[in-house]
Amino acid sequence: PNSCDLDLFDPENACADRFRTKFDQIPSGPIVLYPGTLGTVNGVSYLVDLASEASRINSDVVFVVIGDGIECDKVRERAIADGVLNKNFFMIEPLPKSELVDAFSAASIVSSCFVDVPEMEANSANKFFDALAAGRPVAINYGGWQKEIVESNNAGIALSRDPIEAIRTLTQFLADTAQVAQAGLNSRQVAINNFSRDLLAKRLEGAMHSVTSHD
Q: pTM of this prediction?
């Protein structure tokens, strides 16, 4: 699988205030962060739907998308049409990893989403592993092995594809700050125990030795 950069995303080295200061147009509510490609398969318009529902129920949850891709203009136009762009839905151009670390620190939860294609449940999204390394809960809207990791380790939440149901689940989760904090700690532990680059490198080394050694 992909690996976690535990050193780069070490929560002790990140600074949420630095991100908040640089992007001070973002309100102070809990941030749902999507850091990654806005491709057709990613279905980021789903997050616009969640922002629209959040606005409808007067939730203070804020959605921040950092990235670019073929669907970028489509997502922006939809956010404008729904009246949420730069209100509770913000789009930021790709940032270098060194600055992205601060964005993860400022986020209450990190989202990974895909369109409803069963084959995509086998995906291995970098944002998922970066969220674990950063000690942030994960919110996903698809099934598969990542959903199993999130749920079995209490490291986040699985969201319905129905925006009304999804925003209810999301806002209830974020309202429990103790639960959010514990899910973040659980995420970091999953990263350490299962997806550390050093750990996976040693496993690969062992596998290579096992197939190349001769009696």
A: 0.91
HEC string for 172-187:
HHHHCHHHHHHHHHHH
Place of tokens 């007067």: 58
DSSP 2-22: --B-TTTT-GGG--HHHHHHH
- Provide the β-strand partners of residue 35: 66
For the stretch 187-199, pLDDT in tens is 999 999 998 767 6
Q: Of 146, 76, 152, 88, which Cα lies nearest the Cα of 114? A: 146
User: CB neighbours (10 Å) of residue 122?
Assistant: 10
Q: Count, in order, helices (H) and strands (E) of the chain.
A: 9, 6
Residue of 52, 68, 192 whose CA lies nearest to 134: 192
Location of structure tokens 């950092």: 66
